Amino acid sequence: MKHYIWAVLWAIVVLILCSLPSAATDGVPKFPGIDKLVHTGFFFVFTVLLYYGAIRQTGSFRPSWHISIKVVVFSCLFALFTEYLQWKIFTYRSAEVWDLFADVVGTGMGVFAYLLLHNVYRLEAVEAAIQAKKQGYEA
Prior knowledge:
The chain is mostly helical and 139 residues long. Helix content is 77%, strand content 0%.
């Protein structure tokens, strides 16, 4: 669990921010759709932090479908939980299907970032191994 501390802290921040009344953000400049952008950003960061915890826990930099499935399921369940809270508990907030969609889009962006960056790191590791091998032959 210690590897997921950043994801847990971020989840707490998201829950606090999702529980705030809309009036609490009246002083913040807004544009149409900012709500969806915020939801997407929340879940992008949450997903990346879940991957970070999984990488630290396993000690592996190899992309894993097993980890990805767990991260996506957990992130989507958390998205459903936040919308449920806004629907039933924080009744001064509104639960919307489009908020849930934005949460899933943020999760998808986090998965894409994980797969893309892991591929880049893997290629760099292969290149470094090739260079080390070449230097070993030259010595």
